[in-house]
Amino acid sequence: MINNLTNNQIVIKTENVSIFYGAFQAVRNVFLDIPKNNVVAFIGPSGCGKSTLLRCYNRLNDLIPNARVQGEITYHGTNLYDSRVDPVEVRRRIGMVFQQPNPFPKSIYENIAFGLRLAGLTDNMDDRIEKSLRKAALWDEVKDKLQSSGLSLSGGQQQRLCIARTIAIEPEVILMDEPCSALDPISTVRIEELIYDLKAQFTIVIVTHNMQQAARVSDKTAFFNAEAGEGGSRFGYLVEYDDTLNIFNSPQQEKTQQYISGRFG
To answer: Which of 3, 62, 108, 163 has the lowest tally of Cβ within 10 angstroms?
Structure first.
């Protein structure tokens, strides 16, 4: 069971979290709080554990053999990895938007209705679908072709459809793993504008390799780096976490300054 403390300022707490795949340690000793109705960006070079940590927030790493989390991740005070917590409920409250748009091979309407039925939200189906498409800034473009395949949409529209599908089941948190990396610049702008609008109702955590994007859309930024551990394997760790303006204008750590100035990464 997950507590319903929706007016708690900190939604997710990450306390001394390390992540392992078998004997391999992918992420080491992360402390990080996600505030309510903020956009938090994870930046850093490839292999530093950004997406690995992100997927722990809704327990998607449970689906990977030998993956385990050490430390504690809490959602409104509830340990997400407590044996009494249902991972399906976690994923309903903490939704995910992936790097590649992944609409179902169904109509635009059914892409959203499918998730609503699974969540038991079957009342006022038409209204729920219209509301989610409006929130995803897609309604005006698809309202006359709701029975057309979701796969017939452009890449940017498909990603907004996936966002509409996620928010239709009324999560509190939306995780976004490189949501614009497969999109053209115009579609990227639309998604960034959408992120800005959605944070009034949702808490958003976004992984991005695009530092300019992090600077544009986020309230807080976490910079991760990777170092060689024992045996030469690399592990990710959190270097610095602060308000985005501070990270980009006056970082406290030399590694952060080096990364945002393009000296590595």
So the answer is: 3
Instruction: Spell out the domain ranges in the chain.
Output: 10-102+171-260
Instruction: Tokens for 132, please give them.
Output: 């989610």
Q: Kind and range of the H or E element at 18? A: strand 10-21
| Residue 220 neighbours by CB under 8 Å, 6+ apart | 35, 38, 39, 40, 41, 241, 242, 243, 244
**Under 8 Å between Cβ of 226 and 45:** yes
| pLDDT attached to residue 228 | 82
Residue-wise pLDDT tens digits, 25-78: 999 999 999 999 999 999 999 999 999 999 999 999 998 989 999 999 999 999
Supply the CATH classification number for the domain 10-102+171-260. 3.40.50.300
pLDDT below 50 — which residues of the chain?
4-7
